Amino acid sequence: MSIMPSVTKETSISSFPLLIIEDSPAIVMLMKEFLNDLGYYDIQTASAGKEGMLLFENLVKANKLPIVFLDYNLPDVNANVVLPHILKIKPETKVIVATALEKGEQAVKNVISGGAYLYLQKPIRFDNLQNAIEILEGEINASKKQTTKACQRFFHTYIA
User: What is the pTM for the complete model shown?
Assistant: First the structure.
């Protein structure tokens, strides 16, 4: 058994749970089908903001950190309520906000400056959804590679 850190394998975020907070059943169904086609099967959904916040809390309590797809306008609250709640619990959460509002509108600027990871314009084009996932995967893999290199430097400097 070696104490040397192993080489990090490329990770797919398909191993991460996804949480879709969206009030349109049609959009949820289409997103789930598309994400399943990409290999994502651990998908939970909520049709309202408060339900989504509770589901997020339960996932975190179960030691799962989901990637969140958040509709801006929900029947009970909007993303300006849900996003800070999520980020207060786990600031490193990646939240992708989807809305029919234009990117230049102040409400969208506020949610982006409030910590949203990405913004998707509705109607959601599936190539944009796939691009968002690829960006996340690239970031996760780059972070893991940096961690592995730091561990290897530490091992060679202090252990070897």
Answer: 0.79
